Amino acid sequence: MVREVHAAGYRSLRAIRFPVDRLTVFLGANGVGKTNLYRALQLIQAAAAGTLSYELAGEGGMDSAYWAGERRPKDPVRITLGAEFSPTAGGARSYGYEVAVGLRHPTAAALPFEPLVKEETLTFHHAGRAIKLLERHGPQVAARDEAGKRVEIETELLASETALASLQDPVGFPDLHLIRRTMLDWRFYHEMRTDSASPLRAPCLAVTSPTLASDGSNLAAVFATLVHIREDRSDLDRAIDDAFPGARLVVPPPGRDAAFGMIFPDYPKRVFEAAELSDGTLRYLALAGALLAYRLPGFIALNEPETSLHPDLLEPLARLIVRSAERSQVWLVTHSQVLAVALAEHGSIAPRTVIKRKGETWMEGLRLAGDFAGRED
Fold first, then answer.
1. 62/33 Cα distance (integer angstroms)
2. How far apart are CA 73 and CA 259, in angstroms?
């Protein structure tokens, strides 16, 4: 599980550290930095994938991504991102990963404006002890092997590459492999388009699909996997009836392609294919596919899942999200007060209100120590 996330120097995140629960909800108005919190988590995953520099370059490089507020002239230009992991909530053992990105040194083997990795650490915490499993300063990299021995890594690691992504030796460095695999399993759902050319509206190849792709392009195959491979559609039918009383999802036996449609009570003999469904109906079905798939990823992140949904669908969506949090860890950002209240009620959680404080993103009740006032262990 992800237990904590921290970020500094990234856009509106001057310096913030906060705990993460089984179900974590961030509520806030437009422009307070909710998406920056979501994006920071994506960038942490990009470090595990080896694409961190590329992702930041795609945002306009350090000029665009670095904290734009007041700064002291002599402070180094750094974006620092990190997360803490634990096998169980409140466990005594944990791992902490952190990566710092900065500007190109004049003599560095890199292109002029690309963001470069300056420092990187993976630390194991247990019984009050902190053991550095991975330590990188510029080009120098050291890691502890399976026997706990510190090893200097002799590799030509470019300044745009992360050590976590590059040291792919599950036998020699099992802890690094564990954390990298954990982070790469995360799924981010924010690009599920519903326009007429959306992949959600088209049939897809009939290949067993236990998890929904980030763009939802295999939604029909996810439904076919539940209905024809798992042969258990009870949760899916319950979620659809909760949102569209009397409606039924139709998933025909797949041939080379998989497809789906809906039957509504007003037209009991007519199957509405995916291309005919409203944007809101299609988006809800895509969220159901993400949250009820045969195999959920260990961590699911949703960015404003209420987009395109009718207000009547927010209560059913909240119940759907709470049920999925029993199988996976779920994080979401929203500007819908209705959805946040419903999640608080059905999930027995406290949504965190995101605010702007002197230009920086913050949360109501968050203390500098990285916990919330009144939070119980």
1. 18
2. 58
Computed on alpha carbons and rounded to an integer, the radius of gyration of the chain in Å comes to 22
> CB within 8 A of 222, min separation 6: which ones?
209, 210, 211, 212, 289, 293, 294
Instruction: Look up residue 91 and give its two tokens.
Output: 């466990």
Tokens describing residue 109: 């083997």
List Cβ neighbours of 92 (8 Å cut-off, separation of 6 or more). Answer: 126, 127
The torsion angles phi and psi of 305, rounded to 5 degrees, stand at -65, -15
Region of residue 31 (left: phi > 0; alpha: psi -120 to 50; beta: else): left
Compute the distance between CA of residue 294 and CA of residue 67 in angstroms, rounded to an integer.
40
Q: Which residue has the tokens 């991504």?
A: 65
Overall residue count recorded for the chain in this entry: 377
Q: How many CB atoms lie within 10 A of CB 364?
A: 13
Give the tokens for residue 64: 């665009």
Smallest Cα–Cα separation from 110: which of 161, 160, 155? 160
Backbone angles phi, psi at 40, to 5 degrees: -60, -40
* pLDDT tens-digit series, residues 299-355: 999 999 999 999 999 999 999 999 999 999 999 999 999 999 999 999 999 999 999
Q: Which tokens belong to 196?
A: 């007429």
Which token pair is 143? 């890691």
Cα 322 off chain centre by: 17
Q: Are 193 and 199 in contact (CB under 8 A)?
A: yes
Given the structure tokens 């009820």, which residue do they identify? 292
- The answer to whether the beta carbons of residues 48 and 98 sit under 8 Å apart is no
**366: exposed, middle or buried (C-beta count within 10 Å: 0-12, 13-18, 19+)?**
buried
Q: How far apart are CA 275 and CA 176, in angstroms?
A: 44
pLDDT, tens digit (0-9, with 9 covering 90-100), for 207-232? 999 999 999 999 999 999 999 999 99
CA atoms within 13 A on the CB side of 143: 22
